[in-house]
Amino acid sequence: MHAISEINGEEFDLDRLLAESIVVGPELEFLWDEIEIDADGQTSIAGLYVLGDAAGLAQGIIQAMMMGIRAGERIIERQAASSGN
Question: What is the per-residue burial (b if ≥16 Cβ within 10 Å, else e) of 64-81?
């Protein structure tokens, strides 16, 4: 499986992206604890992002979606910066 950022420079292929993407979304809403994250949703563990209800910050699909979009954008930016693109 290739990282999304490794597809950089290739023609976008939605079927490939969906086939190679893994999304883990455990239901942790009942805990209501807040996990310490930065503005992009990253924890103190490099590369580990916690978003939406699991972070204890978003109480709804729209807020969770917006956190996911922001985190995704930052992941792509950081990967591009580290690869020199």
Answer: beebbeebeebbeeeeee
What number of residues does the chain have? 85
Tokens of 28: 């942790």
Reported as a single tens digit per residue, the pLDDT across 4-59 is: 555 566 676 777 767 777 666 666 555 566 788 998 889 999 888 888 877 777 67
Q: Which residues contact 31 (CB under 8 A, 6 or more apart)?
A: 56
Pick from 59, 13, 64: nearest CA to 4: 13
SS (H, E, C) the chain: CCCHHHHCCCCCCHHHHHHHCCCCCCCCHHHCCCCCCCCCCECCCCCCECCHHHHCCCCCHHHHHHHHHHHHHHHHHHHHHHHCC
Cβ contact 33:43 at 8 Å = no
